[in-house]
């Protein structure tokens, strides 16, 4: 596909913010982007992995781009006494390590010292337990030093602390927003897992919403921070080519894959409770499905986009045991089995692989199967969406029956490859009319300078601006859990069986059978042969 980079077109997103940007000494911001308003970012879980791996790299990248206000402050809360200087130094060291590590998403090479110093000067550490009044009284004192100030409370903690932290913030009066132009915003950012099923998600929403308004709650799904995921809407709605065929009359099926080669990476305890299905399906994979299936919104206004996405989660037909296959990796070419991993029971029945057939019951998609799969220790790392078109209606080429033609497939590559590809048919060279399948592809790196983005840059920046487009609303979270509730709590038939697959393989054979009964097959994870054909 031949594409030339065009003048960037900004989406008609005009978020409201209450405070205008002040003077700025960080590098100047990219054209068309303004620095976020001044705010204090309070990170609960300052000593955790998320802060170090994702939040700090994202803040650093925003500082490099000059998108943070000089008035910004970052208060890190964690249990255990620690000097601010020690926290800063720890963060600096890990940032340097990630920047130097080619396998890291934050492979920035050498750090820009000016940008890091800018961030470091704004860091302050505060020791505090997440469940004691004392912590919140201390925090209030600090925040009262700049009354009316904007504050974002980022809950980078394990899920069991979500409720107590929000409750303490509410009771301490820290979620009260100022009024009028002088007022400051108070926002809460919550990580996944947002509940473990429908009942717990409802309960968590109700709890949070008894202390804060929905407009103050920013529920993160980090997949939505990825440029390649946001680009799904650009591909669909900025090109005249796709919209006419983006419907049941032309689309045969859609495959959504999030395959990983890593195992549980020392997260045995968490994974034993969660499993691949809860970890990935009703959140990340449903988000991708939503981007593919949603109707065009009237604008890129947050509510317009979120309304359209909410319609999709609402239209997902509740999954049953017949629609899903679970698997667990066993010792194989890629290493040990799941049951041999630390903190995993030797007779564990937790699934490390999940596949599902999903139907979106609405006018556009009725009858089109969406096949979703995710798993650990698979043959390749590959997050992508493949949209397969129906065959042509008539056998025009004598030697090639319609069903022998390679189907047209548009693949949107999310990770680690970034781009798109399209499978189609041409005449092979020579005197005889013969059909040959080819693939045309576009790679981001060929057209744009790729940054060492961790995906949280846009999410943090949008939260500071008050733009909720990429965050999940309470209703969508609940309808997504609702669609999978019968799988998690089967009313009949018992738990879903878990089938073994060799570490490093394509997944369990039963997942192939799930598609085979509809006359379909998964696209191979190891696709080198197909791609180079
Ligand atoms: C997380 C899951 O939400 O997403 C992990 O808890 C998974 O188990 C990860 O590995 C995948 O995200 P990414 O961005 O690395 O594809």
What does this structure look like?
- The structure is a single chain.
- The protein is of the alpha/beta class and 533 residues long.
- It folds into two domains: 40-219, Rossmann fold (3-Layer(aba) Sandwich), CATH 3.40.50; 225-454 and 475-531, Dihydrodipicolinate Reductase, domain 2, CATH 3.30.360.
- Helices cover 32% and strands 18% of the residues.
- It has 14 helices and 15 strands.
- It has helices spanning 49-64, 84-100, 113-121, 133-144, 162-171, 198-209, 227-237, 268-293, 302-315, 444-447, 456-465, 474-488, 509-516, 528-532, and strands at 40-44, 73-78, 123-127, 151-155, 186-190, 217-219, 251-259, 324-330, 353-359, 369-375, 382-389, 409-415, 419-427, 435-443, 498-502.
- The strands form two sheets. The protein has a nine-stranded mixed beta sheet, sandwiched between helices. The protein has a six-stranded parallel beta sheet with strand order 3-2-1-4-5-6.
- It is globular and about 80 Å long.
- It starts with 39 loop residues before the first strand and ends with a helix.
- The model is unreliable at 1-27 and 529-533 (pLDDT under 50).
- The structure holds 6-O-phosphono-beta-D-glucopyranose.
- The site of 6-O-phosphono-beta-D-glucopyranose has 5 residues, from loops.
């Amino acid at each position: 596909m031949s594409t030339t980079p065009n003048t960037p077109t900004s989406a008609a997103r005009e978020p409201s913010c209450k405070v205008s940007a002040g003077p700025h000494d960080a590098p100047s911001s990219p054209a068309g982007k303004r620095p976020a308003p001044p705010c204090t970012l309070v990170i609960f879980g300052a000593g955790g992995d998320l802060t170090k791996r994702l939040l700090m790299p994202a803040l650093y990248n925003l500082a490099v781009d000059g998108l943070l206000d000089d008035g910004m402050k970052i208060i890190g809360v964690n249990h255990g006494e620690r000097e601010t200087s020690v926290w800063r130094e720890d963060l600096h060291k890990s940032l340097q390590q990630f920047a130097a590590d080619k396998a890291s998403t934050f492979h920035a090479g050498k750090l820009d010292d000016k940008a890091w110093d800018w961030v470091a000067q704004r860091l302050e550490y505060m020791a505090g337990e997440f469940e004691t009044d004392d912590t919140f009284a201390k925090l209030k004192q600090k925040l009262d030093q700049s009354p009316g100030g904007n504050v974002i409370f980022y809950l980078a903690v394990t899920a069991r602390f979500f409720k107590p932290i929000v409750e303490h913030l509410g009771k301490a009066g820290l979620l009260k927003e100022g009024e009028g132009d002088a007022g400051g915003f108070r926002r809460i950012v919550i990580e996944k897992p947002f509940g473990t099923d429908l009942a717990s998600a409802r309960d968590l929403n109700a709890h949070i919403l008894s202390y804060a308004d929905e407009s103050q709650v920013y529920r993160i799904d980090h997949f939505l921070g990825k440029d390649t995921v946001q680009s799904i809407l650009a591909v669909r709605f900025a090109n005249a080519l796709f919209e006419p065929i983006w419907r049941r009359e032309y689309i045969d099926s859609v495959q959504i894959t999030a395959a990983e080669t890593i195992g549980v990476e020392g997260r045995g305890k968490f994974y034993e409770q969660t499993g691949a299905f809860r970890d990935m399906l009703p959140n990340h994979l449903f988000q991708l499905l939503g981007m593919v299936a949603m109707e065009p919104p009237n604008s890129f206004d947050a509510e317009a986009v979120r309304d359209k996405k909410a319609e999709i989660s609402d239209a997902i037909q509740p999954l049953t045991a017949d629609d899903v296959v679970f698997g667990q990796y066993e010792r194989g070419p890629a290493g040990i089995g799941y049951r041999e991993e630390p903190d995993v029971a030797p007779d564990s029945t937790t699934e490390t692989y999940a596949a599902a057939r999903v139907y979106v019951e609405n006018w556009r998609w009725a009858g089109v199967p969406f096949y979703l799969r995710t798993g650990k220790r698979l043959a390749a790392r590959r997050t992508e969406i493949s949209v397969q078109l129906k065959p042509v209606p008539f056998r025009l080429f004598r030697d090639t029956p319609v069903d022998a033609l390679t189907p047209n497939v548009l693949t949107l590559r999310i990770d680690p490859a970034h781009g798109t590809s399209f499978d189609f048919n041409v005449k092979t060279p020579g005197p005889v009319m013969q059909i040959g399948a080819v693939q045309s592809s576009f790679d981001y790196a060929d057209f744009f300078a790729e940054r060492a983005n961790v995906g949280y840059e846009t999410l943090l920046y949008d939260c500071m601006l008050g733009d909720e487009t990429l965050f999940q609303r309470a209703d969508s979270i609940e309808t997504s859990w609702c669609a999978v509730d019968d799988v998690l709590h089967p009313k009949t038939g018992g738990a879903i069986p878990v089938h073994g697959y060799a570490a490093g393989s394509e997944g369990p054979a039963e997942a192939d059978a799930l598609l085979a009964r509809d006359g379909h097959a998964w696209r191979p994870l190891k696709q080198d042969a197909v791609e180079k054909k």
